[in-house]
């Protein structure tokens, strides 16, 4: 049975879309630089120089290529996420797109701005990329050629198997475009007619809302809405000499779509977010000239549940406030055309003929939107920090305040996370609670008396409609620096269980595993000691603990001073070294279960005999893990191993069974419990 996956199709879809658009950022930066250089040369009157012509041609060339770049990037990411042959999916999407561009000249339908914008990221490019991947995946099981490719390394065989799938998908997608194209033309015509009769203010509000929502979905909202509505907002005047579109650009979108300048300032103000600060520095020269594509795609704004509210509704609030202000305090705007790349404040100064009123209005709106963005920026930044996940995990597991770690715990690991692991971790934490997470106990059997002399505390997970699982989520917790919080919760549960033990005079020895991060963190060790001091606890640490961190030896010595036993767990699993025996007074060595199989061979048995004799000579108890057969029990008894653990005696059992467990029954495997995935 496979480990349950903390991801859904929705997660994969969102991640693929975000990753595909983020991958475009270097391309967008290059295009933005060339555009700035071209406009700067034009502003300074250098258009007569050859370099201006070269830069302008390069800028326009990249702009014409942006649709193809978007299709390639998005198709690749979706194909990767949904396990579809990447090259075929990308070729299919590009083939359909280029074919649709050729067929436009033959189409007799009314022009469709929904399906014919060639130089932008619009609904057609995004939809085509996604449809290509899903169609290939859906048709592949039914249209594969019956070629015998097994055992061959010839890639052409694998490609030819999907020949019919590729051709059929091409026909289906191009046919779909041919059917949808006239529908898009009708929508475009209807939108233009509606725009001609709607009041300018209402039209501007609807246009603003639609454009922001399209941007939020990854579509170039401004170009999409301009193509749909036509020139009506550029032709109508909201105030004398000021068109609706100029009003919208100056006061609704200072610094680009979604008030990019305000978002940029909010990123700078949230100085603790290093990633946000780095993005802000890169984006600054472009946002100054109203190019905010980097912020939209790289932060990202696209499908970001934390940023949609200020991004979508901030511009709506701006145009409402700006209209009221200019109606109460009129400004004599000049009949000048201000380029869309003119920096904020300079555009208002020029359009206002040197009046300070429109400039001060922009200052107020930028400040207002900074205040709107800042709490959302901080909240989003917190979700990428170890503190956010650590606090949320502590709350979900109902850890008391006295046991919560407040200082940084290996936070450098969090910085290595990518979007995917961050989302998966978020879902994992959301599913963990005292109702789903349990501590079970695996008996430790005295080899000579065959009586249970203690237990090892082990984590188990029980999700709705799922069997009992081992702690499969621990690698994600470790990568996020959250292992100490999990260890604290286990220690707290063991403390509760020992307090509830049926006979206080017979409280058993309990082994608790501590992660290397936990051992290295002195604050966490102090909390564990305060919680469990006085109980017969043996902390099990892996050999890797001695290779990581600077506080490990000191904290282990502190545990020994406070009366706890120390065991080296999983000895022989890859970090075997005798150096730690001279650093810490070890009580127990637990031989890893991977060495159990060697007992059947003479050399392996000899190695076991020497290991046991060596540790006994040092006064160290030897525990054999993973014992599964009676034959292994007998051999280990003859060798002189002190304690055994394994399924031959019992798997991990809940507290109720552990309380009454004393001696393994004759039918030992009946005590295995409900574990489906030991871990």
Describe the protein's architecture and organization.
This protein has 679 residues and is α/β, with parallel strands linked by helices. The chain has three domains: 1-195, no CATH class; 198-383, no CATH class; 386-677, EAL domain (TIM Barrel). The protein contains 28 helices and twelve strands. The chain has helices at 9-22, 25-43, 50-81, 86-104, 123-143, 155-161, 163-197, 200-216, 221-229, 232-235, 244-252, 260-269, 274-288, 293-298, 308-328, 346-351, 356-383, 386-396, 419-431, 474-479, 483-499, 516-520, 522-532, 552-561, 579-583, 602-617, 630-639, 655-660; strands at 237-239, 242-243, 437-446, 452-462, 468-469, 509-513, 537-542, 565-571, 588-591, 621-624, 643-644, 675-677. It has an eight-stranded mixed β-barrel with strand order 3-4-6-7-8-9-10-11. A hairpin with a 5-residue loop joins strand 4 and strand 5 (468-469). It is elongated, with a radius of gyration of 33 Å. It starts with 8 loop residues before the first helix and ends with a strand. Mean pLDDT is 83; it is low at 406-418 and 666-679.
């Amino acid at each position: 049975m496979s480990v349950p996956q903390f991801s859904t199709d929705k997660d994969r879809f969102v991640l693929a879309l975000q990753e595909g658009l983020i991958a475009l950022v270097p391309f967008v930066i290059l295009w933005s630089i060339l555009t700035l250089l071209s406009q700067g040369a034009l502003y300074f009157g250098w258009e007569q120089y050859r370099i201006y012509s070269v830069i302008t041609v390069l800028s326009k060339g990249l702009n014409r290529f942006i649709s193809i770049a978007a299709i390639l990037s998005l198709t690749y990411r979706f194909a990767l996420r949904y396990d579809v042959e990447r090259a075929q999916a990308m070729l299919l999407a590009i083939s359909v797109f280029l074919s649709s561009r050729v067929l436009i000249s033959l189409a007799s339908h009314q022009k469709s701005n929904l399906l014919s914008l060639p130089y932008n990221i619009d609904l057609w490019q995004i939809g085509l990329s996604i449809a290509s991947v899903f169609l290939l995946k859906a048709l592949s099981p039914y249209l594969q050629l019956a070629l015998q490719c097994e055992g061959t390394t010839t890639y052409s065989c694998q490609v030819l198997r999907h020949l019919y799938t590729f051709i059929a998908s091409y026909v289906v997608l191009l046919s779909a475009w041919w059917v949808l194209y006239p529908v898009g033309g009708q929508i475009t015509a209807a939108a233009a007619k509606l725009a001609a009769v709607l009041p300018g203010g209402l039209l501007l509000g609807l246009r603003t809302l639609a454009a922001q929502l399209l941007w939020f979905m990854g579509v170039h909202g401004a170009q999409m809405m301009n193509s749909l509505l036509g020139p009506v907002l550029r032709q109508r005047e909201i105030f004398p000499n000021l068109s609706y579109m100029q009003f919208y650009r100056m006061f609704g979108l200072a610094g680009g779509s979604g008030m990019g300048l305000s978002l940029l300032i909010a990123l700078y103000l949230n100085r603790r977010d290093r990633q946000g600060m780095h993005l802000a520095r890169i984006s600054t020269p472009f946002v100054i000239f109203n190019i905010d594509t980097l912020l939209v795609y790289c932060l990202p704004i696209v499908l970001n549940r934390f940023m949609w509210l200020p991004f979508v509704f901030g511009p709506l609030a701006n145009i409402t406030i700006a209209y009221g202000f200019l109606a109460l305090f009129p400004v004599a705007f000049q009949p000048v055309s201000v380029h869309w790349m003119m920096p904020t404040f300079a555009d208002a100064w020029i359009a206002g003929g040197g009046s300070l009123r429109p400039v001060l209005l922009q200052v107020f709106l930028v400040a207002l939107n900074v205040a709107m963005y800042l709490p959302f920026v901080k909240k989003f930044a917190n979700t990428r920090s170890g503190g956010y996940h650590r606090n949320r995990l502590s709350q979900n597991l109902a850890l008391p305040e006295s046991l919560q770690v407040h200082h940084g715990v290996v936070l450098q690991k969090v910085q290595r996370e990518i979007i995917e692991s961050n989302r998966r971790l978020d879902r994992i934490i959301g599913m963990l609670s005292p109702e789903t997470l349990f501590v079970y106990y695996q008996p430790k059997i005295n080899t000579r008396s065959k009586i249970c002399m203690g237990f090892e505390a082990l984590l188990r997970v029980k999700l709705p409609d799922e069997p009992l699982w081992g702690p499969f989520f621990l690698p994600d917790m470790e990568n996020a620096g959250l292992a100490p919080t999990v260890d604290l919760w286990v220690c707290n549960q063991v403390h509760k269980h020992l307090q509830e033990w049926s006979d206080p005079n017979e409280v058993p020895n309990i082994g608790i595993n501590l992660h290397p991060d936990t051992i290295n963190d002195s604050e966490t060790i102090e909390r564990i000691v305060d919680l469990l001091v006085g109980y017969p606890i043996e902390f099990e640490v892996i050999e890797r603990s001695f290779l990581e961190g600077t506080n490990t030896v000191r904290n282990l010595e502190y545990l020994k001073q406070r009366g706890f036993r120390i065991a080296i767990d999983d000895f022989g699993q890859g970090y075997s070294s005798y150096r730690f025996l001279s650093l810490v007074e070890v009580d127990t060595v637990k031989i890893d279960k991977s060495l159990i199989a060697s007992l059947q061979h003479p050399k392996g048995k000899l190695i076991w005999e020497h290991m046991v004799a060596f540790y006994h000579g040092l006064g160290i108890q030897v525990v054999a893990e993973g014992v599964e057969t009676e034959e292994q029990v007998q051999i280990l008894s003859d060798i002189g191993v002190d304690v055994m653990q394994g399924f031959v005696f019992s798997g991990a059992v809940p507290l109720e069974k552990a309380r009454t467990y004393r001696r393994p029954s004759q039918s030992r495997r009946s005590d295995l419990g409900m574990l489906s995935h030991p871990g």
